[in-house]
Amino acid sequence: MKNITTGIDRLVQLIHDNEKITSEKAAKELGIAKDVVEDWIELLEQEKVVSVTYKFNKMTVEERKIDEETFKFQQNKHILRKMLSNVKLTQL
């Protein structure tokens, strides 16, 4: 089975690799519009995957420190969503 990586997956990995990163820098590194990256960051914040701070109108994001059980739950939820979206795509 082929491993599918989404833009959000790449963003999460970038945040993990950098500990803290601005939305502007993340957008440049990913080659994606800043507005799109900021939308993704807001979704990740809602899912409690990242923490966001604002300083001088700059969005900075970092991994949310969570325990192992919460991490596994979030990871499984993300995998399930990917699987469901793949099922929906194959049904089109």
Overview of the molecule:
This protein is an alpha+beta fold and 92 residues long. The protein has a domain at 7-65: Arc Repressor Mutant, subunit A (Orthogonal Bundle), CATH 1.10.10.10. It has helices at 7-18, 23-30, 34-46, 68-91; strands spanning 20-22, 50-55, 58-63. Strands 1-3-2 form a three-stranded antiparallel sheet. Helix 2 (23-30) crosses helix 3. The model has no long low-confidence stretch (mean pLDDT 84).
Annotation keywords:
92 residues, alpha+beta, three-stranded antiparallel β-sheet, globular, Arc Repressor Mutant, subunit A
In short:
With 92 residues, this protein is of the alpha+beta class. The protein has helices at residues 7-18, 23-30, 34-46, 68-91; strands at 20-22, 50-55, 58-63. The mean pLDDT is 84.
Secondary-structure topology with pairs:
Elements (H helix, E strand, L loop, with lengths): L6 H12 L1 E3 H8 L3 H13 L3 E6 L2 E6 L4 H24 L1
The total strand number stands at 3
Give the class-level CATH name of the domain at 7-65. Answer: Mainly Alpha
How far the N terminus sits from the C terminus, by CA atoms, comes to 20 Å
Rg: 14 Å
Helicity range of the residues? 55-70%
Assembly annotation: single chain
* Broad shape: globular
Q: Major beta sheet, specifics?
A: 3 strands, antiparallel
The fold-level CATH name of the domain at 7-65 is: Arc Repressor Mutant, subunit A
Q: Would you identify the CATH H-level superfamily of the domain at 7-65?
A: Winged helix-like DNA-binding domain superfamily/Winged helix DNA-binding domain
- Can you write the helix and strand succession as a string? HEHHEEH
- Which CATH architecture of the domain at 7-65 would you pick? Orthogonal Bundle
Figure out the total of helices: 4
Whole-number average pLDDT? 84
In what range is the share of β-strand residues? 15-25%
Largest sheet strand order = 1-3-2
Low-pLDDT segments: none
